[in-house]
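Example for tutorial group B:
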C-alpha cells in the first residue's frame, strides 16, 4: 500500500488541502509554491494561497514537500518515461528491419537486461493550451465527509477507495458514522477490516453469503466472490465470531442458507475446514458435513431451470415474482424461450419492477437498447477485481413491441423513483454526458487524474495523432493497438511483433520485458493516415 496521508486523500477526492486557518496577505513562500504548482498544470485558489500564508516557514516546507510529491504523482511526473527507442516515433520509422529484429532478439535473449543505447536527440515541443486544475482548501469537517460518502456508496469500491477507508479507520474515524451501507460487498469489506481491529460487527451478516464475504475480507480476498481466496489461519476468537454469525443466520433465516452455501460450495468447504466449526456449533457442523459430503441441495435456480425445461410458465413466473432481481436477470432469456407468452411475461414483470434495485433497472434498460437488431457477437464483462472481457455468440433481435413495453415499464418506474428524491435545483447537463455510459462498478477502476467509464466516446477535436502509452513495474505488460473498419473487421495491428505500419503511419516504441526499474511503451497513430487507409 502506498503512503497515504490526510492531504493525499483530500487531493484525490476534493482537489484540495486540509487547512483550517488563513491570512489576509499572501507571503513570498505561498506565491513561490503557487508558481511551482503552475509548472505542473495546477493553479492555487485564493483560499489556498491565504491558507498557506498563515503557516510558519517550517509548516510551508512540509506542505510544499507533500503537495508537490502528490501533484507530480497525479500528473504522472513522478517517474521517467524512457522507451526502448528514445527518439520515437521517427527513429522507429527510419530504422531498418534488421536493426529492429536484432535489437528485439538480443533484448529477449538477455531477458531484458540489455537494451540498445542511442543518443537522445532534442525534441520539438508544440505549444499546447493546458487546462489548469484548481487546488482549493477544505476544513476538517469537510474532509471527514469523504469517508461518509465512501461508506454510503451503492456501488463497488475500487482498491484505492478501500485503502482510503482503512486509513480513516486507523487515523480519523468520525463519531456517529453510519458504518455500513446497503451494498453488501462494501459492508462486508468494512466489517472484515473492523474485525481485524477487534471491533464489534454483530448484526452485520444477514445471510451466510455475508459471513463468507467478511471471511474473504479478513483474508484480503475478492469480496465480490468472483475469484478464489486462500484462507489463512485465523485466531480462535475470530473463528468463534464467524461461526456464531453463521449459526445466527441459520436460526433467524428463512431456510435459504443451504442454497446460499451451495452457490459458493467450493469456498465454503475450505472455509468450514479453516474455521473448525465443530468446536463451536453442532448446527453449523451439521451443515458443513452436508456440504463436505456433497449432498444434493434443492435450490431456487434449480427449480427455475426445471420450470424452463418443462415449459411450466405459470410456475416459472410465480417463482420469479418472489425474486424480482433474478426476474430482471432472466428476462431476456424468458422472452426468447417463450415467444408466445411475451405479453404475460411483460405484465408480470411490470408488476414487480418497483422491487428491483435502480442499478439493475439501469443495466436492463441499457441492455434492451441493444436487442432491437440481430448481433453476430456479444461482449460480456464478468464481475471481479480483475477486468476481463468474454466474446460470446450473438443473438437474434427481440420483438420491437415487447422491448418497448419493457422499456416503458422501466422508464416509468425510474422517473417515479427519481421524482421522490430531493430536488437538485437548477442543473445544467453537459451534452457530452450522453456519450458517457453510467459506471456500474468500480472494482477494477484504475486511479488517475482523468477517469472515464468503459465505452465512453471522447472527442478528438483537431488533434492529428493518437498516442497510447503504459508505464509499469514488475510483471511485463504489453501495449498493442488493433485497427478496424466501420464494420469492425480486423484490418491490422501494431504490437511488439509489428513495431510499425507504413499504411496507417503507426509506430510502436519497442517492447521492454524487464520492468524492475520501471518501463514505458508508446504507440503513435496518425489519425488522417489511418482514416484514409480505411
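The residue assignment follows.
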Amino acid at each position: 500500500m502506498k503512503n497515504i496521508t490526510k492531504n493525499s486523500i483530500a487531493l484525490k477526492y476534493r482537489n484540495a488541502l486540509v487547512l483550517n486557518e488563513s491570512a489576509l496577505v499572501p507571503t513570498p513562500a505561498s506565491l513561490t509554491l503557487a508558481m511551482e504548482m503552475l509548472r505542473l498544470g495546477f493553479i492555487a485558489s485564493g483560499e489556498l494561497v491565504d491558507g498557506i500564508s498563515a503557516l510558519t516557514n517550517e509548516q510551508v516546507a512540509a506542505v510544499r514537500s507533500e503537495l508537490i510529491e502528490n501533484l507530480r504523482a497525479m500528473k504522472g511526473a513522478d517517474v521517467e518515461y524512457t522507451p526502448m527507442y528514445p527518439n520515437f516515433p521517427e527513429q522507429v520509422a527510419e530504422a531498418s528491419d534488421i536493426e529492429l529484429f536484432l535489437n528485439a532478439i538480443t533484448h529477449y535473449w538477455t531477458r531484458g537486461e540489455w537494451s540498445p543505447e542511442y543518443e537522445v536527440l532534442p525534441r520539438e515541443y508544440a505549444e499546447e493550451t493546458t487546462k489548469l486544475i484548481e487546488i482549493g482548501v477544505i476544513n476538517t469537517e469537510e474532509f471527514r465527509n469523504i469517508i461518509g460518502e465512501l461508506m454510503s456508496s451503492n456501488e463497488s469500491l475500487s482498491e484505492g477507495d478501500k485503502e482510503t477507508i482503512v486509513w480513516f479507520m486507523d487515523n480519523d474515524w468520525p463519531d456517529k458514522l453510519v458504518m455500513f451501507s446497503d451494498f453488501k460487498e462494501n459492508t462486508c469489506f468494512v466489517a472484515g477490516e473492523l474485525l481485524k481491529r477487534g471491533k464489534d460487527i454483530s448484526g452485520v451478516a444477514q445471510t451466510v453469503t455475508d459471513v463468507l464475504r467478511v471471511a474473504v475480507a479478513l483474508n484480503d480476498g475478492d469480496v465480490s466472490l468472483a475469484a478464489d481466496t486462500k484462507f489463512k489461519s485465523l485466531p480462535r476468537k475470530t473463528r468463534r465470531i464467524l461461526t456464531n454469525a453463521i449459526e445466527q443466520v441459520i436460526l433467524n433465516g428463512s431456510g435459504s442458507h443451504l442454497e446460499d452455501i451451495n452457490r459458493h460450495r467450493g469456498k465454503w468447504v475450505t472455509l468450514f475446514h479453516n474455521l473448525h466449526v465443530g468446536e463451536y456449533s453442532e448446527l453449523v457442523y451439521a451443515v458443513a458435513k452436508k456440504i463436505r459430503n456433497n449432498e444434493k441441495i434443492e435450490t431456487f435456480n434449480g427449480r427455475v431451470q426445471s420450470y424452463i425445461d418443462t415449459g411450466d410458465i405459470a410456475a416459472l413466473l410465480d417463482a420469479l415474482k418472489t425474486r424480482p432481481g433474478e426476474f430482471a436477470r432472466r428476462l431476456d432469456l424468458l422472452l426468447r424461450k417463450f415467444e408466445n407468452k411475451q405479453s404475460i411475461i411483460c405484465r408480470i414483470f411490470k408488476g414487480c419492477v418497483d422491487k428491483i434495485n435502480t442499478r439493475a433497472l439501469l443495466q436492463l434498460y441499457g441492455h434492451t437498447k441493444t436487442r432491437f437488431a440481430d448481433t453476430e457477437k456479444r461482449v460480456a464483462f464478468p464481475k471481479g477485481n480483475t477486468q476481463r472481457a468474454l466474446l460470446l455468440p450473438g443473438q437474434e433481435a427481440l420483438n420491437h413491441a415487447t422491448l418497448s413495453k419493457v422499456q416503458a415499464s422501466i422508464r416509468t418506474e425510474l422517473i417515479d423513483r427519481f421524482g421522490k428524491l430531493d430536488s437538485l435545483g437548477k442543473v445544467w447537463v453537459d451534452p457530452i454526458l450522453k456519450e458517457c455510459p453510467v459506471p456500474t462498478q468500480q472494482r477494477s477502476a484504475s486511479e488517475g487524474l482523468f477517469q472515464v467509464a468503459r465505452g465512453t466516446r471522447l472527442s478528438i477535436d483537431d488533434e492529428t495523432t493518437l498516442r497510447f502509452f503504459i508505464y509499469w513495474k514488475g510483471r511485463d505488460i504489453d501495449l498493442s493497438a488493433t485497427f478496424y473498419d466501420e464494420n469492425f473487421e480486423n484490418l491490422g495491428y501494431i504490437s511488439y511483433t509489428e513495431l510499425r505500419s507504413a499504411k496507417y503511419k503507426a509506430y510502436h516504441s519497442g517492447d521492454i520485458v524487464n520492468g524492475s526499474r520501471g518501463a514505458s511503451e508508446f504507440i503513435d497513430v496518425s489519425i488522417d493516415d489511418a482514416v484514409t487507409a480505411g
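The chain has a mean pLDDT of 87. Compare this with the pattern of hydrophobic and polar residues in the output above.
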